[in-house]
Amino acid sequence: MNKVCHSLAGAVALASLCAAPTHASEVLSLPDTRVSATAYQRHAAELSSAVEVLQGDALVRRRAATLGDTLAGLPGVQSSGFGPGVGRPVIRGLDGPRVRVLSDGADLLDASVSSPDHASTGELQLLERIEVLKGPATLMYGGGAIGGVVNLIDRRVPTYLPEDGLEADLELRGNTVADEKAGAFGLTAGAGQLALRLEGSRLEADEYRIPGSPSRQDGAFNEADSAALGLSWIGERGYLGLAYSEQNREYGLLAHEHADCHTHGPVWHCGGHGHGHGDHDHDHEDHDDARIDMRQRRWDLRGEYREPLAGFEKLRVRLANTDYQHREMEGSEVGTRFDNRGQEMRAELTHRPIAGWRGVLGGQSSRRDFAALGEEAYVPATLTSNHALFLVEELQSGAWRHELGLRHEWQDVQVKRSAADSRHRGTSIAFGSTWQFTEGYALFGNLSRSQRLPTAEELYARGPHAATRTVELGNARLDEETGYNLELGLRKTAGRLTYSLSLFRNQVDDFIHAADAGYDPGGDYRVVEYRQDDAVLRGFEASAALALSDRLELGLFADSVRGRLRDGGNLERIPADRYGLRLNRQITSALDGELEAYRVERQDRLAEHETGTDGYTMLNAGLSFRGFSEAGVDYLIYARAGNLLNDKARQHSSFIKDDVLLPGRNLTLGVRFSL
Questions:
Q1: Which of 47, 170, 264, 587 is the most interior residue, by most CB within 10 Å?
Q2: Domain contains 28
Q3: Is 27 part of a structural domain of the chain?
């Protein structure tokens, strides 16, 4: 595999050196997209780190039921699935509390980082775009972004007045693999300086089909609905808006195994209750298997104001408040209830250049009130407060652009029982440069020192966790993680050949991980305790697109990551190597086709007590037709066929990979109308 990947990376670089210069009329430029999750909202091609943006028709066609599955086709990004309702993004081998998911710059404030079976509450069906920052983004967003950031850009808070006073979107989608039915609508109306936004969505999916026998993944249902209402005042120098949203979701909790776990002195013992779910025949409307019933209520205040003070270009504010709750159910009984009430406030001021340096000064404050009640309340009630100040500066000097930033944050965790509170402090610093050495070509690199503060779960967990079949033992003496990340890259952004190549090495001192305690408690459970060891993650991402003709484009991509403890041994759930190609064909001016094939290799670089996963090949195809009606309505009709080979596939990054297969052959049909 290393030879294949190195060959691909070499081919990309060689092709760029050997490619003949093109005339201006032949140049094909990459989309001119500003990334709002960065300090200066610069174009993706100008940044000193690797960034992916999924938007437009590509987002519509690739959108799945979960965030992880939607992003899994991007280089360096995979998914850690926990059934059809849960799929978290894995960026360069890191996920959970190391990847921060934002709603237009503000944290989602759900419980997805606390456990792999908890769904992300980001609403996907009406997103405008998704921004993925790969590598540490701690300067702007704190230690929870030591692995990367996913920023979901929606239109709940209108930022402009629609033309002719009205904009509307309607999308309907269905698939065959899970008999999925999904629909969403969005409406923006403007009058004077006010804009009103109304949204709603609904998704229903049954147990999905899998290759072989049994033919369906038992218990894998997914139901969700959401609604949102937003109102903004929009002036010549900015906007200020408020949005309220609700989301309800119910999904199957796969591979759940309840056990009676108790202690005999310091030793844990677990005995099964026979609640496995492999032999159930049930009506999905009753949902007798283990499931999660989740709801969230959220308020968002967003605003931007240009030239707020002398010497400053812009003020940007984000405030979010959530009331999140989910119940883990078995039949009609509530096993455990999780409550999470969170608030976040952040403000950013962009100052005018001083001696050539232009910068963003900001502050961030968050509060998380978390409680678990019931038989599997393995984490005590805690109140986590986090405050931070940050400064990010940039200097443009000819073909060079430099970035320098500093962040310091304070965290206090109060425990609502007889346990010692904890306090941690963290400082992050980063420097990056981009050199556009000729038109359309750029070298980029960055060096950072990032600190992540331990979560309440890592500090105080103590007890059985049925979803992962573990007894988790926290450690109140954990220190901060400190990561030293180096990334070097080369990108070509114009011409018939475009590409991006990134190499990275991330050394994390005092890496917090759930290590096997070394004994079997019974009941098919493991005892894990949170420890700290030094770790190193390294790898690369490469992608290229070659315009073979005016209507035919060939794309190549590959990614690889290695994760090891410096004292020996591999990190758990590191994604396997992956490489593939895509063909995009413009059949007519309105009809486009896509063929995609990629290979995921066998993963046999395993942590202690971890099982391997076999390699598999995915073959996908798609068609899309864009039209315009006489009534002024744009429409997109799309079809996508997935896993055409019906190959058996498992996600190595998933906690339940030994029990759950990915969906088999699938056909998705959808239509989207825009006014």
A1: 47
A2: no
A3: no
